[in-house]
Amino acid sequence: MSSAGQHPLPVAQFLRLREHIPALYGLLSMNAAILAYTHRELAPGPLVLTVPAILITICVIRMLVWMRPVTSQDLDVAFVTRRLQRVMVLAVVLSVAYLCWALMLDRYGGPYEHGHVAIFVAVTVLGCIFCLTFLPIAAMLVTVAVLGSFLVYCFATGSEVLVASAVNIALVAAILIKVLRDYYDSFVRLELSQRELHSERRQAQALGEENARLAQTDALTGLPNRRYFFAALERLLEQAGPGDVFTIGLIDLDRFKPINDTHGHAHGDRLLQVIGSRIKAQCPDNAIVARLGGDEFGMIVMAGPEEAESLAQVLCKAIHEKVRIADTLVSVGCSAGLAVFPDTAMKADLLFDRADFALYHAKRHKRGRCVIFSRDLEKLIRSEQAIDAAMQTASLAHEITLVYQPIVATDELAPVGVECLARWMSPELGEISPELLISSAERVGRAREVTLILFDMALTALNSLPDRLCMSFNLSGYNLCDGETITALLQRMARTRCDPDRLIFEITETSLITDIKMADIALRRLRATGARIALDDFGTGYSSLSSLHSLPLDMVKIDRSFAARLDESSGRRLITAIRNLARALSLECVIEGIETESQLISARLAGFSLVQGYFLHRPMPLHELLDRIRDEPGDDGAAHTAVE
């Protein structure tokens, strides 16, 4: 067993000695037995039986002691140091005992027996030197004690051969001691370098652990970060057993962006630091709250939805408290969404998505409150997710198309124009409503693509229609705020050399609210070509009069909800007032939603010259529209154009 720099030097010495000392005791025992055997008939019985038996028994016992498994006590420095000291003493005592026994046997026998004794002494010394390499002091003491005594004995006998043999053995032993010392010094240096390397590795490991901790901590707030949040969530899911319940939640700040934009990012960062401190102070032991990025926080609560909702409300209340940053007093709100394991979902991504949808629902419909994901939200998200998934893979050029609903003059009931209406037939979901088509395209980033494909279809259809007919094309709020979309529309108009006077771009008031300045710029770019602008669904928006007054409009289309009131005297007065307002502003006026003959008559009596509705024409494909126009009679169109 090697220390490998993991233990102090005395322990490393002890562990290395365990590999060699049992062999030393085995060598001494075998040599003693062989020497006793060669003198069995020459020396007295006690010298060849009793004394070697005692010495061999001691060696075997010590060999077994050294061969036992290492215990924790054997790795204690103080204990090992005392044990090494005992080894040195015992090595000298045993070596001297063996020498004395060998010299007593040397009194018997002839030249061969005397030579065997000399060899025994030499082998004993050399064996001790090699086996005690990692305890050089003991090796040196044994060498000095044995060889010193042997030299004295040789000189006392007066035998030149014995003296020469002793000198030879001493010279070899001295060389070996020198080699042993050098090897031991290398061992010490290696152990120290390994210990330093091990220390560096431990420091590197500690540094790595610190880096890992920092990698899972948000540097700004000191809260756990997104990586830690999802790692903790995955661990919980792996360890979750039957009956375990926990809740994850998402908290998003309200009104943070205006503060960040108005006061600067330094103020915004300081605000997040204060909020992080408040969250830490309010976070209980059974919950984790992490900053996921920006102004969004995530929480994992080891409890059901009631306790999680209570914690979310506590955190929202703490977040809402005013914060003084420099000379400015600011305050933000927050909304929260929760999802419960296992009722809502059993996978990390699904739990997070459900919590995110609940947060989205809270911000749209219950701002400043906490929403728990429910079955009603499940139905809504399944519908939206299915539509978005279909939209992401849809071959739009083949799946979306246009139908056309005529706009009719009330005097002759003849079409004067058509409105383009989008249709989407998904191979997976079937027919999707235009509203869901547009909203899904905006969510998945294909709004511009949808608009341009439909506009190409509209321009192609416009070339097929009689010159007397104009065409209305609807633009969403996303289109109006996307300068590249407007540029692409203008490029297509120029490339096809269409007559801009025949184009009407329809917008809704709700599409203007997002950024009315951007919308105004876009509309003026379109109108500069000669195209006209119509305000659709008039009367249902938030700022109708201001829109009429400030935007570059040519036409208003009164929402279909007003057509149902044409049969009422109060409704007719209201609609007449709207028509008079439009006329005063030199705007054409179309009333939508005409579904009965009486509504048509009332619209005509109210002074409307343009109408649109199912009673006159339903939306239809281009080929059917062309057939109807071709078959349209010159003076009796009502009977042929009314829809049954």
TrEMBL record:
**Highest taxon listed in the record's lineage:** Bacteria
Quote the PROSITE patterns the UniProt record gives: EAL, GGDEF
* Keywords for the protein's UniProt record, in alphabetical order: Membrane, Transmembrane, Transmembrane helix
Membrane-spanning segments: 20-38, 47-67, 87-105, 117-144, 150-177
Q: Which CDD domains match?
A: EAL, GGDEF
Domain annotation EAL: ranges: 380-633
Report any Pfam family annotated for this entry: EAL
- List residues of the GGDEF domain: 244-375
Q: Which InterPro entries match?
A: Biofilm_reg_signaling, EAL_dom, EAL_sf, GGDEF_dom, Nucleotide_cyclase, Rev_trsase/Diguanyl_cyclase
Could you identify this protein by its name? Diguanylate cyclase
Q: Which organism is it from?
A: Novosphingobium malaysiense
